[in-house]
Amino acid sequence: MAQGSRQLRAGRIEGPGTTHLLTTVTAGRRPWLRTGEAAAIVLEALRWLHEHRRVALHAAVVMPDHVHLVATTFRPLPSVMHSFKSYTANRLNRCLGRRGPFWEPGYHDRGLVGERDVRHAIAYVAQNPARAGLVPWGAPYPYLLLDGEAWREGV
After folding, report:
1. Is the pTM of this model over 0.90?
2. N or C: which end of the chain has fewer CB within 10 A?
3. Would 129 be classed as within a structural domain?
């Protein structure tokens, strides 16, 4: 592992049962996720990860050019993110009739320590559409899921 990679990972909190705020962005920050069909593919993949106990999803939002989620991992985080990004890239590229990289390499993760960190991360995810001007403050956003009930009900 390169020295820079070790330094980046030095403060990282990992392992089964760790809760993270995760963000992954589309290649070149292109707004490929702005359609309902594209967002549904992402939400379906997240629901699968939740239902098959790869993660416990606490919150997720699909924005036009990125995805945020708050999740507790039950499998190694790199494996979960690789599976999610690979599956969704293939499905989304087919849906959009395109080829090539769909996601930027890697992802941003922040380990959350304690209930307060988790609550703040969930609030950040929930407020993201309004902060981006996609909906008025307090208005519902169709590609936001916040709790276990939402995951069971579907998109």
Report:
1. no
2. N
3. yes
Compute how many other C-beta atoms are within 10 angstroms of the C-beta atom of residue 63.
Answer: 23
Domain count, the chain: 1
What span, in angstroms and rounded, lies between the C-alpha atoms of 31 and 82? 21
CA distance 134 to 132: 6
pLDDT tens across the length of the chain (155 residues): 444 444 445 455 667 789 999 999 999 999 999 999 999 999 999 999 999 999 999 999 999 999 999 999 999 999 999 999 999 999 999 999 999 999 999 999 999 999 999 999 999 999 999 999 999 999 999 999 997 544 444 43
Q: Is residue 5 part of a domain?
A: no
In a domain, 155, yes or no: no
* Structural domain includes residue 6: no
